[in-house]
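We treat protein structure as text, and this decision shapes the records that our systems exchange. The tokens are whole numbers drawn from a learned vocabulary of local backbone shapes. One such record is reproduced below, unchanged from the form in which we store it:
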Amino acid sequence: MMYPRLKLARSLLRDDGVMFITIDDTELSHLIRLCDEVFGEENHVATVCWQKKVSPSNDAKWFSTDHDCIVILAKSREIWRPYRLPMNDRQKGYYTNPDNDARGPWNSATYTCNKTKTERRNLYYPITNPNTGEKVWPKETAVWAYSRDLHATHVKENLLYWGLDGRGKMPRLKKFLNEAGNVVPRSIWFYDDVGHTQEATKELMNLFPDSGFDTPKPIRLVQRMLQIAVTPDQGDLVLDFFAGSGTAGHAVLEMNRNDGGNRRFVLVQLPEPTERKDYPTIADIAKERLRRAGKKIKDENPMFAGDLGFRVFKLDSSNIRAWEPNRDNLPQTLLDSSDHLKTDRTEADILFELLLKLGLDLTVPIEQKTISGKTVYSVGAGILLVCLAPAIAREEVEPLALGLAAWHRELAPVGDAQVVFRDSAFADDVAKTNMTAILQQHGLENVRSL
């Protein structure tokens, strides 16, 4: 089940893309072997331990499984770099002010580095403890991290700490909270920071009490992944191909609400049955959760102007009928194939396949208008005009063409527009030729039919 998905996921990633896979401890070794084969051992960035439970399972036969693993894989580890995280309250608590420094709370860092005396002789020199007058030398296997000149600056700015009594054996360098930036992500994620399973269940119950979904992920867990991997304002795309209850999409909506970002998401979920009439598949649960999440955000933030919508697609065969002749009755096969578009498909089905074949984004804006009794679609503010009416008579050609030309002028798209019709709709070749000629006279040169 996993191998083909991993192969596909890797091909979909950008060169600076990254993938997070949550899995329990018992399956971790199997997953790592698969990932090493698909991504390469060199692209395994880290395996994070997520503390998922608040309290232990006292009925466990051996151990209470209080954590899950999150395997982090890069398309190219040499290219991808994680974004740093803002400090949490626990990390800020490491900063204190035992000497009442006017610059505020600080933490201290070691004053030595991993270079030897042989490698960096200029960093092997004595430092005087101002409180005792004692000269302190670094180890020959770990010399000072700073040159003599930079050390003199540290002394002048009172940046060295020699312990509470001032008689420490080695100095440490003060790092002030008000100068501290974001911090590097760590490989242990505590539930205080990223949520736990009980929190996830409560989140879904509060929003969607009748979901019946009992294994969601906490929103904060997904948001931690997004903080590390996704920029807020570059339209980055988040793909979750085990969507479940739709936590990833919900997390993206919440983050965009919080910071005004424009992150996007694609959720993929097999239509696994739920034995319910109202939400017959897991995919239906995810869709309803996203609807309710968007409504809640809008109700609580009426001035929010971000995009809270989504489109739903189901994978299907092409709308274009394949040539499958009945060799015992070829004349009838030819008659049946006179309309090469399948008759059980809607205009929307055909329209979105057209977008795919033209390489257009499935989320591009689409407007709909009735012209001379025919439904016409404007895609991408007029860059594509589509009429999929099943029949266009000779006398309907001119008013329809003039209406299309007028709408095109009104939309004023950037770049050359393309107009597409259903080929079998035209009453005859004369109607088709007249349509093309009238449109070209009004500047719509690119006319084609399906």
Residues 346-449 form one domain. Residues 194 and 221 are 5 Å apart (CA to CA).
